[in-house]
Amino acid sequence: MNLTEEQDILLSSLKKVVRDKIAPRAAEVDRRGEFNWDVVSLFWDLGLLQIMLPEEFGGWPQSPCYTLCICTEEVAKVCASSALLLVIQAVGSFPLVHSGTDPQKKRFFPRISEGRELMAYLVTEPGAGSDVRGISATARKKGNKYLLNGRKTFATNGAVAGLYSFLAKTGEFFCGREAVRRSEYREAGGEVWLQGEQYCRSYSGRCACTRREPFGRSRKRL
Question: Dihedral of the CA atoms 76, 80, 84, 86 (nearest 10)?
């Protein structure tokens, strides 16, 4: 894919910043475990941390995903943690970009583009991570607000962000795949109980969207 003139100018500017500002300190910053605010400022100045926003809020006008990818690739050549800044800022804003209401966009997008607030992204739980459908955190509506209930084990950018994307389920969903049963026999009170739960078959063997349906029956021991 050929670069547009604007993309070529942006990439040229970024390459200079990567060579002169990021690469010389990358190993030291990683060794010391520091969050590099200098790099954050450089990315804001280049317009990289608002690429995925709508154009009226400072986003990239054409092919924003491709622009984000080539910029992330260029930074990752010398510093993976700095490249992750671009990724998390993008995915953290996706819920607002794709599903936010107009009042929400008008309220939060200026905080990103003008206020230069970083996004945090909260997905990983004790039982789910890359398998996003496996999350168990819930968001229950109460009046005009939502009550969050759940546990996250990681919050990328959590200590430095101004806005947080917290992934949670708002309702039950069953994918309709073939239902199967996992069962086991247990002895109790002179009887053998067949106990387990019904769930749906998926690629991984357990579908995260399942409605678990306990079942049980007993028979007399012979």
Answer: -30
